[in-house]
From TrEMBL:
It comes from Suillus discolor. Coiled coil: none annotated. It is found in: Mitochondrion inner membrane. The keyword Cytoplasm does not apply. It is a multi-pass membrane protein. Keywords: Membrane, Mitochondrion, Mitochondrion inner membrane, Repeat, Transmembrane, Transmembrane helix, Transport. InterPro entries: MCP_dom_sf (IPR023395), MCP_transmembrane (IPR018108), Mito_2-oxodicarb_carrier (IPR051752). The chain crosses the membrane at residues 12-32. Solcar repeats lie at residues 9-94, 99-183, 192-282. One of its GO terms (cellular component) is mitochondrial inner membrane. This is Mitochondrial carrier. It comes from the Eukaryota.
Amino acid sequence: MATDQRKPLPFVANFAAGAIAGVSEILTFYPLDVVKTRMQLETGKAKHGMVGTLSSIVREEGSRLVPPLLLEAPKRAVKFASNDFWGKTYMGLSGESKMTQELSILTGCSAGATESFVVVPFELVKIKLQDKSSTFAGPIDVVKQVIKKEGPLGLYAGMEATFWRHFWWNGGYFGCIHQVRGMLPPAETQQGQLFNNFVSGSVGGFVGTAVNTPFDVVKSRIQGAAKVPGVAPKYNWTYPALMTIMREEGPAALYKGFLPKVLRLAPGGGVLLLVVEFTLGVFRQALGPPYI
């Protein structure tokens, strides 16, 4: 059956493919995410470079990396499932039969907004555990302590910053994928298609990272800070926090952790797209007509 005549796969298939891709990307690149967070939480002039930070983490902490690593898979599942949902929705509303550049950006931004509402508690727990000064026993301990001190809404600290981070990353990522795919020569083999997916996903990952890193720095600062009763937090809302960091630490501080972040999410974005598309292809073959 022609590609444009295939029945769209159900939501659960896209959700599962995103989760599988997320696990693949995390197992390959996760240590760089820890390095990125440590560098972003460091105020003032950076004391350690990427290599020094990574060496220290591996040497001193080791197994502490595992619990927050497990929190990453649900984020990737939501990312690709919501992108599929919004893509179908906007194409139906616009009457387009194929995805356009404008719709791909709108779809990506909407998927990022959706993802942000789901992943905030996961992100909060991850940041708390990745902090070098963390004394939490594990993810469950973080949840218990935050709810005890701040109530259930404490798990949504940094919601607004997370919204902007995912809004811009997903818009850049999925919008760039559509653009790059159109520029690459059509694949004539399955291997060629996998290569095109990796290249377009890697470029999308780079662009998304370049756009959203300042928002990621703010999110890490907000979620990593300890709440003190009666004291207004230094970092609260995203855009005022951006101005505070720029004024006190200089514009370069808004890109703290950029190198480990882009080294993870550029090739990581390629791995995500490659594994998602490959997994969806496996699902189509398993389900048979009218999905193939």
